[in-house]
Amino acid sequence: MATWIKCTDTKHEVVYINLDNAVTVTRNDVADRIAERGTVISFMGGEQIYIVVNEQPEEIIKPKL
Question: Domain tally for the chain?
Answer without folding.
Answer: 1
